[in-house]
Design brief:
The chain is of the alpha/beta class and about 325 residues long. It has helices at about 15-30, 45-50, 60-70, 100-115, 120-125, 130-135, 150-155, 220-235, 250-260, 265-270, 285-290, 295-300; strands at about 10-15, 35-40, 55-60, 80-85, 90-95, 115, 140, 160-165, 175-180, 185-190, 200-205, 205-215, 240-245, 260-265, 305-315, 320-325. The protein is globular, with a radius of gyration of 20 Å. The model has no long low-confidence stretch (mean pLDDT about 90).
Length: about 325
């Protein structure tokens, strides 16, 4: 599951020993192809980091991390997954958002570090996915969060829960029944009525805007390959794509193949765009005088309410692709 931290991980270290440990953690995560940025606590803009990353790893004492979290935590739907690692990398402890990825991150990071993960949430102890985690995996918005607790409770009781409206090849665990509505508890991506006294959590799949960056000399076949690879990584089909955007006008040919809109983004738009969640520009982009390409293009094309769901990834070292999600109406 750790590979689904598409918006990246922010590591925040307090002490010098913690910073050295944070560098080790950063390298481990990069080896897993997870986007990651490492900050010293004194330099970290926590108000921005809190909204911009899927997960935050504090390398410090649990007490210090808990005090920080108390200042920024808002709700399950908004907060990142938060994990704490001690300076000696002996323990990895989910502190916030266990159902939203913190438990998976703790387990897999502990395995990579040779540390011990401390898991306390009931669903994960029983190996069950939560409604929240399912929604995140499907890149969907929960329309009625008040129903989440009852469905999660059913999952914990090992009752069968129907997941209606998903790909038939998906795998969400043994007590999830796909594309059926004959359960007492239902998670649905469909706009249809369910009779009786069923408890239904309704999910709305979000549309995707894809931002592409590459040199003009790069063959369109490589760009197409990169987009297909990213969609496979996200576990979604072409039908979820609403628009493709790039500084290269030739990319419009790929948009036509996908039967989606194309947004040509100018150099001026790229450099005038502001978003606190953008990945810092690479040395190459800086030399070209650009603040960013793929992420900026994806966000511009997705509109004012869009948010990154996949930070830029490199394909064959020549193409960068980023994905933003937006409410398609």
């Amino acid at each position: 599951m750790i590979e689904r931290l598409w918006r990246g991980v922010a590591i925040i270290s307090a002490s010098e020993d913690g910073y050295r440990a944070g560098e080790v953690i950063r390298d481990k995560l990069r080896g897993m192809e997870i986007p990651v940025v490492h900050y010293r606590y004194r330099d970290a803009r926590l108000d921005l980091i809190w909204s911009c990353y899927d997960a935050v790893v504090f390398v410090m004492a649990l007490e210090g991390a808990a005090r920080i979290v108390c200042r920024y935590a808002r709700s399950k739907a908004e907060d990142p997954a938060v994990v704490v690692v001690d300076d000696g990398m002996n323990y990895v402890i989910p502190l916030l958002g266990g159902h939203w990825g913190a438990n998976e991150l703790a387990r897999e990071l502990a395995e990579a570090l040779g540390s011990r993960a401390v898991i306390t949430t009931a669903a994960e102890l029983k190996g069950r996915l939560s409604v929240e985690r399912i929604a995140e995996m499907l890149i969907a918005r929960v329309l009625n969060p008040e129903a989440i607790v009852r469905v999660n409770s059913a999952l914990l009781r090992d009752e069968v829960v129907c997941l209606d409206g998903v790909d038939a090849d998906a795998d969400f665990g043994g007590n999830i029944k796909l594309n059926s509505d004959d359960c007492r508890y239902i998670i649905s991506l469909l706009d249809k009525p369910y009779g009786g006294d069923r408890v239904v959590v309704r999910l709305k799949p979000l549309k995707l805007s894809i931002g592409v960056g590459s040199r003009s000399s790069v063959d369109l076949g490589r760009v197409r390959k990169g987009i297909e690879m990213v969609l496979e990584r996200l576990g979604v089909g072409r039908e979820r794509v609403g628009v493709i955007a790039s500084i290269r006008p030739e990319i419009a040919e790929i948009a036509r193949e996908f039967n989606v809109g194309f947004r040509l983004v100018s150099r001026e738009e790229l450099n005038n765009f502001s978003n606190p969640c953008l990945t810092p520009p690479s040395e190459t982009l800086t030399k070209l005088g650009l603040r960013g390409v793929a992420e900026v293009a994806a966000l511009i094309a997705g509109g004012p309410s869009s948010r990154l769901v996949l930070r830029k990834v490199a394909v064959d070292g020549e193409v960068t692709i980023a994905v933003a999600a937006y409410d398609g109406g």
